[in-house]
């Protein structure tokens, strides 16, 4: 699971036997029983197959055009810092600083998860020995370049974007692992921002006016599936949702201070329109369902969970500031809605508390369309998150698992725990755990299947795969062609399939001594398509799946409901008792609304945050246990058949790869002096290995790297 599969992902396949030739190796593999042939025995039955592979993939055979990133397109302050660093330390190092800052800004904008952004920045810093530190706040980012010689500050607003989140992480990993140069990485980032690597279907809903289709769909489905509305409320909410989208489109287009008014004006318009339907159509409207469904996208439910995760992980200042800021912004939306109600209704409080019984008329547990409607709601949320349509099936499956576990456990505990919040806490925790575990399994499965496709088209493997491998490759190819025919996929994927055959032929010509070809050249468009194929070959980032799922699991609208109860105080509970033949009415005191808000907010956010952490713990330690039980390789032996390979090279790459999903982070993550790490003083190799560079880390693992070096500080194991 850990060692041998890294070789497969790197393009070498399951390595079993090697010759002394630097270019050609013989691989023998069995899908059921893989054994090392040197010095031992192996099954010689028909299940064993032979193939050959080149240590270098097609990337290293191509002569690139040498395109340079245009530094003049950088902001003035960043360009000034770049020029200073370039004079002192060279262009490559200066551009790496620029790449790290741009990566941090776009990842922060796309998922606003400071812990995971800091994780990839730390790995880039350690890999390229960059003298930079950073402070990632809720909105403001600070970068201290060259040990504090320069400081850059940026304000980066919320703009959840699963596609860019995944792409920018893949670009960083590709550069980190030596699959592309810094110029190629920076150019690819710029092309991504311009939409060159997004499918046409994704471009339509990425920005207005195409996004206007998503607002009414999400609002209407949320009103029914989450907040007790009926089909009449479905229609009213679709209208208010469309109007809210128009308002945001208008104010964002105007820009400037107008954008600051989005929450207030959206809230007022929602309260006004819904109250008009309530007043002039027989008071049949469930106003809470309409309000909460319409404002569902504008609430910041996911940010509550991120704030708790930051507090738990030690980022106290960022977590507390995020928590309070989001609570205030949610209150602004709620207050704006009550202003709209006040304009139309004489008694807005009575309409909010639904004394007429308009809400909750549909028992979802008995409806066959509950799950299809939830999937439609989740698809609209994916549209808001700008998730690639071609991969909707992945995200929808994770969302469905989390929701169904949460729903069923809540239904089971609702009656037994009616006087406390344990039903909410238990269902949220279990739903988050299920979502994380399922997403991890799905990610590994998809990556395993996609390995065969990328190994074939990038020529990281020569010859035929096993029958299972050939099946996976054909299924991947068919899926790409079908999704392109339907208009969901990216055109460049099909273009590269045609290019792959041409590149294979040209490579065979170049390696044929009797042929005159001496190099493989690409046109500019072909080079862009090829670089895109390299980036897409990187593993799917699991958080691209989890962020929309957490958004659906987090009832951010529950927090808004509690804010409404702060504005409209709940009615007193009275109880009639007979004492000595006399009737007495006992009135229970109203619990402080502010206390109710804070308590429910903590239960909701903390339970989901704990569920996320526990889920990753289950994945991490479950993988460790399965590796110990079923992995046939000895950890103390080299992971490759090259006698000069480092025994820890594969382990280093594997740890770096898996750690990107988790929250444990310290600024001195790979610093030997950190208290989080220990060194075996009795190990005679410790001192020498910690002070030498492993120049073959990636190539020995099968990566197509040429000159990338990496220090063995990454080999230090955390006490955790």
Characteristic terms for this protein:
7% strand, 11 strands, disordered C terminus, elongated, 57% helix, mainly alpha, two-stranded antiparallel ribbon
Task: Describe this structure as you would to a colleague.
- The structure is a single chain.
- With 720 residues, the chain is mostly helical.
- The protein has 26 helices and 11 strands.
- The chain has helices spanning 3-10, 76-89, 91-111, 114-128, 162-176, 182-193, 200-206, 214-225, 231-254, 262-280, 287-294, 301-312, 316-344, 348-352, 370-384, 392-413, 422-457, 467-485, 491-511, 524-536, 542-553, 556-567, 593-630, 649-659, 686-690, 697-700, and strands at 24-29, 49-54, 62-63, 132-136, 140-145, 150-155, 520-521, 573-579, 582-588, 693-694, 710-711.
- The strands form 5 sheets. A 3-stranded antiparallel beta sheet has the order 4-5-6, covered by helices on one side. The chain has a two-stranded antiparallel ribbon with strand order 1-2.
- Helix 12 (301-312) runs antiparallel to helix 13 (316-344).
- It is elongated.
- The two termini are 21 Å apart.
Rg for CA atoms: 28 Å
Sheet with most strands = 3 strands, antiparallel
Low-pLDDT stretches: 1-55, 634-649, 665-720
> In which range does the helix fraction lie?
55-70%
Number of strands: 11
Strand content: 5-15%
What does the average pLDDT come to? 77
User: What is the terminal-to-terminal distance?
Assistant: 21 Å
The shape is: elongated
- Give me the secondary-structure category: mainly alpha
Number of helices: 26
């Amino acid at each position: 699971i850990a060692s041998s599969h890294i070789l497969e992902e790197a393009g070498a396949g399951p390595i079993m036997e090697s010759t002394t030739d630097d270019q050609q190796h013989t691989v023998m593999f069995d899908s059921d029983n893989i054994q090392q042939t040197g010095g031992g025995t192996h099954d010689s039955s028909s299940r064993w197959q032979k193939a050959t592979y080149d240590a270098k993939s097609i990337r290293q055979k191509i002569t690139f055009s040498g395109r340079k990133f245009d530094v003049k397109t950088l902001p003035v302050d960043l360009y000034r810092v770049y020029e200073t660093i370039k004079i002192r330390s060279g262009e490559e190092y200066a551009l790496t600083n620029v790449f790290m800052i741009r990566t941090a800004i776009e990842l922060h904008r796309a998922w606003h998860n400071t812990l995971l952004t800091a994780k990839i920045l730390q790995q880039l810093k350690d890999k390229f020995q960059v003298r930079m530190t950073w402070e990632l706040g809720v909105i403001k980012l600070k970068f201290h370049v060259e040990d504090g010689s320069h400081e850059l500050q940026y304000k980066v607003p919320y703009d959840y974007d699963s596609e860019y989140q995944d792409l920018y992480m893949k670009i960083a990993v590709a550069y980190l692992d030596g699959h592309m140069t810094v110029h190629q990485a920076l150019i690819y980032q710029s092309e991504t921002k311009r939409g060159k690597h997004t499918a046409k279907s994704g471009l339509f809903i990425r920005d207005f006016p195409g996004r206007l289709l998503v607002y009414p769909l999400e609002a209407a489905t949320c009103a029914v599936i989450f907040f007790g509305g009926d089909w009449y409320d479905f229609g009213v909410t679709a209208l208010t949702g469309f109007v809210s989208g128009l308002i945001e489109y208008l104010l964002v287009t105007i820009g400037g201070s107008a954008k600051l008014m989005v929450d207030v004006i959206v809230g007022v318009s929602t309260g006004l329109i819904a109250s008009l339907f309530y007043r002039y159509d027989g008071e049949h409207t469930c106003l809470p369902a309409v309000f909460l469904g319409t404002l569902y996208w504008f609430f910041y439910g996911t940010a509550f969970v991120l704030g708790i995760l930051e507090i738990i992980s030690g980022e106290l200042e960022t977590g507390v500031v995020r928590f309070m800021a989001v609570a205030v912004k949610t209150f602004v939306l709620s207050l704006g809605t009550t202003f709209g109600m006040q304009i139309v209704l004489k008694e807005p409080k009575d309409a909010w508390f639904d004394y007429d019984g308009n809400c909750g008329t549909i028992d979802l547990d008995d409806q066959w369309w509950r799950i299809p409607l939830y999937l439609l709601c989740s698809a609209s949320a994916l549209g808001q998150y700008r998730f690639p349509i071609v991969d909707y099936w992945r995200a929808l499956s994770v969302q469905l698992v989390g929701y169904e576990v949460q729903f069923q456990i809540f239904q089971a505990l609702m009656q037994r725990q009616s006087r406390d919040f344990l039903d909410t806490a238990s269902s949220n925790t279990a739903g988050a755990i299920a979502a994380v575990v399922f997403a991890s399994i799905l990610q590994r499965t998809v990556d395993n299947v996609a390995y065969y496709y990328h190994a074939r088209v990038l020529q990281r493997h020569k010859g035929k795969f096993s029958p299972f491998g050939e099946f996976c490759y054909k299924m991947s190819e068919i899926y790409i062609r079908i999704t392109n025919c339907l208009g969901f996929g990216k055109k460049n994927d099909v273009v590269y399939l045609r290019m792959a055959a041409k590149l294979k032929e040209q490579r065979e010509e170049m390696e044929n001594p009797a042929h005159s070809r001496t190099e493989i050249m690409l046109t500019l468009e072909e080079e862009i398509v090829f670089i895109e194929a390299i980036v897409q070959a990187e593993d799917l980032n699991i958080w691209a799946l989890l962020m929309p799922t957490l958004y659906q699991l987090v009832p951010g609208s529950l927090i808004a409901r509690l804010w409404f109860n702060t504005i409209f105080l709940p009615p007193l509970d009275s109880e009639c008792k007979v004492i000595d033949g006399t009737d007495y009415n006992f009135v229970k005191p109203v619990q402080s609304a502010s206390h109710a808000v804070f308590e429910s907010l903590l239960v909701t956010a903390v339970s989901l945050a704990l569920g996320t952490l526990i889920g990753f713990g289950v994945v991490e330690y479950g993988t460790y246990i399965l590796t110990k039980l079923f992995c046939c390789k000895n950890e103390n032996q080299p992971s490759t058949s090259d006698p000069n390979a480092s025994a820890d090279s594969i382990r280093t790459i594997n740890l770096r790869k898996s750690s990107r999903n988790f929250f444990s982070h310290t600024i001195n993550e790979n610093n030997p002096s950190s208290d989080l790490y220990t060194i075996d003083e009795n190990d005679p190799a410790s001192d020498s290995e910690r002070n030498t560079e492993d120049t073959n880390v990636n190539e020995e693992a099968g990566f197509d790297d040429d000159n990338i070096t990496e220090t063995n500080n990454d080999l230090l194991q955390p006490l955790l």
